[in-house]
């Protein structure tokens, strides 16, 4: 019998937990210890394989020092939310920040104090991205 696919909201919340955990430099083991769980359970939460209960979400948000709403930002299919905003949901940003490369890039970028240099880097990356898009599009 094939296993049931994770619910998209559970998967999203799990990826937000992972992203924030990585942002604060916390291991799965440390988060598990703080919650009284194993790192394997944290892995299941982060993959969306296991749902995170309401009280556990509250605990996680306190440990990771974010509001509960942070874990749901950009969540797929939140009914009613689409009616109040015409802007597309930036889930690709959360997906990017949930990767090791994305997080490393953001950390390194924020360490650059020179605003002009940061702007030049953004301009360069935008040019490279536009070139790749033109090549592949």
Short description:
This protein is mostly helical and 137 residues long. The chain has helices at residues 8-23, 28-35, 39-47, 54-63, 68-72, 91-97, 100-110, 115-136. The longest helix is centred in the last third of the chain and has 22 residues, at 115-136.
Summarize the topology.
Elements: H1 8-23, H2 28-35, H3 39-47, H4 54-63, H5 68-72, H6 91-97, H7 100-110, H8 115-136
Helix pairs in contact: 1-3, 2-3
Structural commentary:
With 137 residues, this protein is mainly alpha-helical. It has eight helices and no strands. It is globular and about 45 Å long.
What features would you highlight for this structure?
single chain, mainly alpha, 137 residues
SSE order, as H and E? HHHHHHHH
Largest sheet entry: none
Envelope shape: globular
Beta-strand share of residues: under 5%
Distance between the termini: 40 Å
Helix-and-strand structural type: mainly alpha
Number of helices: 8
Mean pLDDT, all residues:
84
Question: How much is the radius of gyration in Å?
Answer: 18 Å
Low-confidence regions = 80-88
| DSSP, total strands | 0
Looking at how many chains there are and whether they match, the oligomeric state comes to: single chain
Q: In percent, how helical is the residue content? A: 55-70%
């Amino acid at each position: 019998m094939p296993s049931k696919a994770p619910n998209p909201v559970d998967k999203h919340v799990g990826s937000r937990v992972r992203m924030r955990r990585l942002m604060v430099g916390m291991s799965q083991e440390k988060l598990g210890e703080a919650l009284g769980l194993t790192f394997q359970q944290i892995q299941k939460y982060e993959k969306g394989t296991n749902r995170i209960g309401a009280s556990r979400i509250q605990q996680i948000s306190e440990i990771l020092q974010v509001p509960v709403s942070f874990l749901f930002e950009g969540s797929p299919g939140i009914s009613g939310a689409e009616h109040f905003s015409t802007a597309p949901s930036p889930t690709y940003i959360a997906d990017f920040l949930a990767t090791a490369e994305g997080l490393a890039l953001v950390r390194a970028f924020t360490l650059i104090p020179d605003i002009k240099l940061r702007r030049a880097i953004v301009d360069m990356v935008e040019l490279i991205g536009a070139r790749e898009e033109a090549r592949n599009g």
